Amino acid sequence: MTNDHKVAPSILAADFANLQRDIEMINASAADWIHVDIMDGVFVPNISFGFPVMKAVKQHAKKPLDVHLMITDPDRYLADFKNAGADHITVHYEACTHLHRTIHAIKDLGCVAGVALNPHTPVALLDDIIADVDLVLIMSVNPGFGGQSFIENTYKKIKELKALSAERNPNLFIEIDGGVSLQNSAKLLEAGANALVAGNFVFSSKDQIATIAELKK
Q1: Is 192 annotated as a binding residue?
Q2: Coil, strand or helix: which one is 66?
Q3: Which residues are catalytic?
Q4: What residues make up the domain containing 13?
Q5: Which residues bind substrate (predicted)?
């Protein structure tokens, strides 16, 4: 795989007391996007951060904010996230009753529109929407907490998604979130992924810029 894939460090793993420093590190790195995990404590068993923190991130970010909404009823907040600085908005399949409407509402805001799938949600459920979305995020851990171990079934799902999108949406971003490291990144790209989210792996490394460069290779 050539390095035309995207790398999106997840600031959920950043040092929140030094968030500006960590955003500036990402700005200076080979990363393409800044991944922002929004959790509400209802859809997932954790609460991350909301609009004030996101606006603060946006002030310093020089790369697109790739916002992943792990929240119930995301439709209520789409415009708020756009106004807080989101460039991409990804909603969960499991949280959207009217997914087609939600995806088009995101596009109407001028954002890249994504849909995320939990580990137990089959790729085949996207058959009717695949032509409409810009990005599909496959959760390779159960959402809610960073630092979990990678679920091996992810490779199969990537291949299925690649096959599903090949004719109707060849430019689809296939993004993987959870347990991504240098141990599995090449295999993920080989399976058909073209965007990698990495949190703990980047922020716990001694040389974060070098780690991002390795993921980008």
Answers
A1: no
A2: strand
A3: 37, 177
A4: 6-216
A5: 10, 68, 144-147, 177-179
